[in-house]
From TrEMBL:
Gene3D superfamilies: 3.30.1240.10, HAD superfamily/HAD-like. Its EC number is 3.1.3.-. This is Cof-type HAD-IIB family hydrolase. It comes from Clostridium chromiireducens. It comes from the Bacteria.
Length: 262
């Protein structure tokens, strides 16, 4: 038995779809008795939005960059949270940071914090459809729930600015959180959470080693998956810094599955 752990956005889900070639390959992989782990920064709602339109069989969902794990029946088997007190401090610190927007997910919904000082005219309108609701700053700070994931999105899509946000978060809050840059998003998750840690937990539960694990992703939040197996894949067109951490380069997920089935 072999395991495929695949990122979702930018990996399986590209150009607002999952290609038919990738879907066929995933079905073939499952037919031959292998297992599929979807490993993403998205929450339950975000994953379901995609799989409702492009369904395929999976065995595990690693969500919120490892803060949340569910089985094939969507039963939660592991969960960690960012304490509300820390969440609010981060919101207060970064609400007026350049041209950035903040969103957070408390397990029941994903909220975007509105900021009228940020020009969103160049942001694709579909981007905002990912959020359950938009809230103002006071509403966000009055929320008492903990979060599974937060993210700070740089509207101007500046990698350098996103790196600065990441560095400041690590300086100020590393005792409580892990931080991953995912393109122009700076994802914030509970301490000791990552995709790699979550996948190792799944494999331990399955009494499997990483020898038969294949991982594929396109961004820095996938590096923790790359580090736990020699069978790590990324794409030819990703940032060079991401390529540095992977052992194999392809253009599509179905090519990874082809290697698995050889």
């Amino acid at each position: 038995m072999r395991f495929l752990a695949s990122d979702l956005d930018g990996t399986l889900f590209r150009d607002n779809k999952i290609s038919e070639k990738d879907l066929r390959a995933l079905r073939r992989l499952k037919e031959l008795g292998n297992k599929v782990i979807v490993s993403t920064g998205r929450s339950f709602k975000g994953v379901n939005d995609i799989l409702r339109e492009y369904p395929f069989e999976y065995d595990y969902l690693v969500m919120c960059n490892g803060a949340l794990i569910a089985d094939s029946n969507n039963k939660i088997i592991h969960e960690k949270v960012i304490p509300n007190k820390i969440q609010n401090k981060i919101i207060e610190s970064f609400y007026n940071w350049d041209d950035s927007l903040i969103y957070y997910d408390d397990g029941s919904a994903t909220y975007m914090i509105q900021n009228d000082n940020v020009d969103t005219s160049k942001v694709d309108a579909d981007f905002f459809n990912h959020f359950s609701d938009r809230v103002n700053l006071d509403m966000a700070l009055s929320n008492t729930a903990d979060s599974q994931i937060m993210s700070i999105f740089n509207v101007s899509q500046s990698i350098s600015m996103s790196e600065l946000v990441k560095e400041k978060l690590l300086v100020d809050y590393s005792e409580y959180i892990e931080v991953f840059r995912n393109q122009f998003f700076v994802d914030i998750v509970p301490k000791n959470c990552s995709k790699g840690i979550a996948i190792e937990m799944i494999l331990e539960n399955e009494n499997m080693t990483t020898d038969n694990l294949y991982t594929v992703g396109d961004s820095l939040n996938d590096v923790s998956m790359f580090k736990i197996t020699n069978n790590s894949y990324t794409f030819n067109n990703v940032e060079e810094i991401v390529k540095h951490h992977a052992n194999n380069f392809v253009d599509y997920v179905y090519e990874v599955i082809g290697d698995m089935l050889e």
